[in-house]
Amino acid sequence: MKTFEQSEKSKKTVKSMIEKPGNKIKENNKKNKASKKENTAPEVITTSNKGSKANSVLAPAEKEELTSEEAMQRKREEFFKKKMKGGDKASKSPKPESQKEKEKGKRPRVWVGGNTNAKELDYSKPTTNGNTEEPSVYDDDLAALRPGGLKGNLPDVECESSTDEEEEEESPAPTKPSDKKSAFGGMFGMLKGLVGAKSLSQEDMEPALEKMKDHLIAKNVAADIAVQLCESVAKKLEGKVMGTFSTVTSSVKQALQESLVQILQPKRRVDVLRDVMESQRLRRPYVITFCGVNGVGKSTNLAKICFWLIENGFSVLIAACDTFRAGAVEQLRTHTRRLNSLHPPEAHKGRTMVQLYEKGYGKDAAGIAMEAISYARNQSFDVVLVDTAGRMQDNAPLMTALAKLIAVNMPDLVLFVGEALVGNEAVDQLVKFNKALADHSMAEKPRLIDGIVLTKFDTIDDKVGAAISMTYITGQPIVFVGTGQTYCDLRSLNAKAVVAALMKA
User: Fold this and answer.
1) Residue 299 maps to a domain
2) Which of 51, 120, 299, 314 fits a disulfide with 382 by CB distance 3.0 to 4.6 angstroms?
3) Is residue 183 within 8 Å of 175, Cβ to Cβ?
């Protein structure tokens, strides 16, 4: 080992040992020049297939002579060369788009199983003064409503029902095949339950009636009405001898189904077209008043009924008697404009088929209705549709105003507009509406609700119990059923289809 005095480091001064950036770069350059002179081994360049890069291979002697700093410098140079080549590739101009790609452009999405008549919602078209050059989407929807689509009587409402549904059988639990006695007892018990050997009693029907009651409540029938229906079925079946090969459950189900069909087919049937023609013969307008709670769709279904009447050749005057809700008159004005575009006067020998009678907001609704009926009589309109403000059944001042409107104008038909979504609330609404009309009526014989318009029927699937509740409480028929948002979405009630959907498990 050398001592410190013998080493070269001891001979250096402190000043020479201080490193500066400039000095270091100069030293590196000197070393690189010296190494280039010493290296006499030539570079061997190997070429591969066309398009491949030229790779320089160092001789083994050169690799051994390279110091760590020189090897690092060589690697840096190679790294920068690769980067420069990658940049040149990236800077090359991209491939020109093919003609197909240019023509393809932005394609609208095609929905599988969707509406083929749907309007293309493209809002990228140029506008002038805030309005697109194309007509509005809502106006174009009118083209789908072809005149003559609702001519004659309305089609029946369709409900999903399972006709192949098997009836449940009251049979004992399955027995082991090895036990012959228990198998024989199970078969004997099943036959004993099937064959009509005795009359029905309240105790026999109790489990089946309880099950039916829960099923009706689950299908949106009001709880009180479900109990009353089950009690009436029990009284009807008590003491009755069952038929051969019939169970208690099937007997109760059949009796309940018959009762429900009877409820939905009341004695009095409303035929609007026949009544309108009778009023035409007497040369006076046929007046229909719409009432109900807030937000059930009175104005929308009034427009649907108006479209149906126009399709059958009757002229209609709409009386805007909802002077309470903001935007009610404007809503009816929009409906009037759209209906007139569907049935222009030119198609009816210059006769305007729909007209709106309005007096603004804050006026007396009964007075506006009286003026509208008088105007319709003078202008020979066939039908007057009176739109009233929505009101809760507990609002005494508004219920008094409705009773006054009905008592003063004596409409031919008073329709209560109710939702198919409600259950117990439907009973409360109808009972209190009828009670308010009876209490606040100024006539000796008070005028009550004559029929029901059931709205939003397309949103409930098979939970159609509200129809049973409303008809059972009032004893009045369901005249119209709203099944959608267009003017053609209006149906008449098919009692058997509704009951089949109600009884579906």
Assistant:
1) yes
2) 314
3) yes
CATH label of the domain that carries residue 398? 3.40.50.300
Residues 254 and 317 in one domain: no
CB atoms within 10 A of CB 73: 16
Distance CA 357, CA 369 (A): 9
Using an 8 Å Cβ cutoff, are 468 and 260 in contact? yes
Q: Which residues pair with 385 in a beta bridge?
A: 288, 318
What is the amino acid identity at position 34? A
- Residue 479: DSSP 8-state: E
Final residue before a domain boundary, out of 209, 230, 264:
264
Which tens digit of pLDDT belongs to each residue from 472-490?
888 889 999 999 889 999 9
Q: Which residues contact 429 (CB under 8 A, 6 or more apart)?
A: 292, 293, 393, 416, 418, 422
- AA identity, residue 59: A
End-to-end CA distance of the chain: 102
Query: Which residue in 356, 445, 448, 470 sits closest to 402, CA to CA?
Result: 448
Which residues in the chain land under pLDDT 50? 40-64, 93, 101, 126-140, 143-144, 162-196
What pLDDT sits at residue 25? 55
Clarify whether residues 401 and 480 are in a common domain: yes
Quote the domain boundaries for residue 377. Answer: 272-495
What pLDDT, on a 0 to 100 scale, did the predictor assign at position 140? 47
- How many beta carbons lie within 10 A of that of residue 450, not counting itself? 19
State residue 292 phi and psi, 5-degree precision: 160, 180
The 3-state DSSP class for residue 495 equals helix
Q: How far is Cα 218 from Cα 335, in angstroms, rounded to an integer?
A: 37
CB 464 within 8 A of CB 453: no
478-482/490-491 β-pairing = antiparallel
Pairing of strands 316-320, 55-57: unpaired
Both tokens of 238, joined, read 């008590």
Indicate whether 151 belongs to any domain. Answer: no
In whole angstroms, give the CA distance from residue 401 to residue 399: 5
Residues 301 and 441 in one domain: yes
Shared-domain flag, residues 297 and 438: yes
Assessment of whether the complete model's pTM goes beyond 0.90: no
DSSP string, 174-211: P--TT-HHHHHHHHHHHHHHHS--SB--HHHHHHHHHH
Tell me how far apart the alpha carbons of residues 82 and 84 are, in angstroms, rounded to a whole number: 5
Q: Name the domain count of the chain.
A: 2
Residue 260 falls within a domain, yes or no?
Answer: yes
Q: What are 382-422's pLDDT values in tens digits?
A: 999 999 998 888 888 888 888 889 988 999 999 999 988 88
User: Residue 255 belongs to a domain with what CATH number?
Assistant: 1.20.120
Q: What pLDDT is recorded for position 134?
A: 42
pLDDT of res. 339: 93
Q: How far apart are CA 208 and CA 22, in angstroms?
A: 104
Look at residue 314 in the predicted model and tell me its pLDDT.
93
The residue among 232, 264, 296 that closes a domain is 264
